[in-house]
Here is the input.
Amino acid sequence: MPELAERFELSLPAGWQQQLPESTLTSDVDKMTFVLQLARWNIANKSGGPFAAAVFERETNRLIAVGVNRVVPQHCSLAHAEAMAIALAQQSLHTHDLSTASKHGFELFASGQPCVQCFGMTWWSGLTRLIVGARSEDIEQLTQFCEGPLPDGWQQLLANRTPLPPVEVQMDICREHAREVLISYAQSDGPNYSPGRS
Ligand SMILES: [Zn+2]
Here is the structure.
């Protein structure tokens, strides 16, 4: 009988601290530009897929956590960039419910539209704002990654979330730049780790 695993651990790639901004980012465009640079670094570093994310405190713009895709290097289909950023934010703030950790709330910047898993994680995390770069159709068209069966009207579902507070969704921030990052991954011959593809 094979040995059964007892625990698992996910981590950012070595060198992630050197990718952090030197000053506070205040605009949506500046925050998304930072996230897209992080995704480019993950591609060049060959430390995972072409996606990155970051959690900021709203109003204060304090950076709480960053995430990059770690699925293949860490043998874990959970390790999407959004999941990494959400989980690391919860670890930093010592709570499973981000809606209770600050009166301002927290926002997630994602280089690509959340897949079906990350939609669920956004729902349960307590985040109150989601800002998206590339759309699902960009991801599926440019990289052939599969986004899964996201429910119709997913943005409205988040806007009506209860009993947790609603999630504001903002689409297409730096979408063209986000598409360019996906194109660069497709040209790099990086692996497609969608289930059934590898
Ligand atoms: Zn995902």
